[in-house]
Amino acid sequence: MPNNFTTLLLGDIYSDSGCGAILLKLPTLRKTFHADFVIANGENACRGFGISVDNMNLMFKAGVDVITSGNHIWQQEEILPFLDSQTCLLRPANYSSSVPGHGFCIVGSPSAASGPYMVSGTPFSNSAVLSAAGGVGVVNIQGRVNMPSTEDPFKSLSDCLRQMKGKARQIFVDIHAESGEEKEALAFHVATQVTGVVGTHIHVQTSDERVLKDHTAYITDLGMCGPSESVIGCDVELAIKRQKTQLPIKAQAAETPALIHGVCIVSDASTGKALSIERFSS
Question: Could you tell me the pTM of the whole model?
Answer without folding.
Answer: 0.94
